[in-house]
Design brief:
Low-confidence stretches: 1-40
Shape: globular
Number of strands: 14
Strand content: 25-35%
Helix content: 10-25%
Radius of gyration: 18 Å
Order of helices and strands: HHEEHEHEEEEEEEEEEHHHE
Largest sheet: 9 strands, mixed
Number of helices: 7
Distance between the termini: 30 Å
Structural class: alpha+beta
Mean pLDDT: 80
């Protein structure tokens, strides 16, 4: 690979391994031992977090996403806990997952940045300590509730948004990065089939995914519910005919300068 191409690829692989990215990821996950913020699924701790944007429907995706892409995780590294967590003997170990973009399925006319060839993603990892025996050497696998964990060997469809570099935050200057919308913006896509593959850290079939949607006590008819068992083409057609709604500014968001 030539120098110019290598630099271009390096710019595309925006690292989320900053203190701010770790802090945001930890804020979206439960404190160790907090029963109100987490539950278990087959030995996997499921974290409940706040979504950045609405992310369940086609309207949500075309309103907030810049691109919808098919991706494959190709590498991952651990993001080690901070010193405060180590000293406390309980905390979170996150993962920095490198995602290869296999195909761009849809792009917004308002997108100011072309879809990446690859990008990095801060994903759930493990909780350590905080259990009955309070042993910090014991790791409990974590995943987000109602969303994939993002694991090697699987494929996904993601709605992503480019976040511009930000200056003047409590954590210093933040580099630009690709972000998801929320828990509904990542779909399993093994064998080119929506709903089939890794979800909440376990592998499930399309039949299992359909059954899970049917058993919801208060079902939200999400894109995952609607297109489970289908190829991506139906989803793409739905996005193409859906109109975005005007975005409303968040009055509670603190003012943050955009880096010049």
């Amino acid at each position: 690979m030539g120098t110019a191409a290598a630099l271009a690829l390096a710019a595309t692989l925006t690292s989320l391994d900053s203190d701010e990215a770790k802090a945001e990821a930890r804020q979206e996950q439960p404190a160790a031992g907090n029963a109100d913020k987490a539950s278990h699924n087959s030995g996997i701790l499921l974290a409940h977090g706040a979504d950045r944007h609405p992310s369940e429907t086609a309207t949500d995706w075309v309103t907030y996403a810049d691109h919808v892409v098919e991706v494959t995780p190709v590498a991952e590294t651990r993001i080690e806990p901070n010193q405060e967590e180590v000293d406390r003997g309980e905390g979170l170990i996150l993962r920095d997952v490198k995602l290869r973009v296999d195909r761009v399925l849809w792009s917004s006319e308002e997108a100011t940045k072309t879809a990446p060839q690859a990008f990095n993603w801060t994903a759930h990892g493990w909780m350590f300590g905080g259990g009955e025996d309070d042993d910090s050497s014991v790791l409990t696998e974590m995943a987000g509730e109602d969303q994939p964990r993002i694991e090697l060997g699987h494929h996904y469809i993601m709605a992503i948004e480019w976040q511009e570099p930000r200056c003047g935050t409590d954590d210093g200057d933040i580099p630009g990065q690709w972000r998801g919308l929320g828990s509904g913006s990542t779909l399993p896509y093994d064998a080119s089939t929506i709903g089939q593959g890794e979800f909440e850290g376990t592998v499930r079939s399309t039949d299992t995914a359909r059954a899970a949607a049917a058993e919801r006590a208060d079902p939200v008819y999400s894109l995952l519910d609607e297109f489970t068992g289908s190829e991506a083409s139906g989803l793409v057609d739905e996005l193409a005919k859906t109109e975005p709604v005007p975005e409303q500014p968040d009055p509670s968001a603190p003012p943050v300068g955009v880096c010049g």
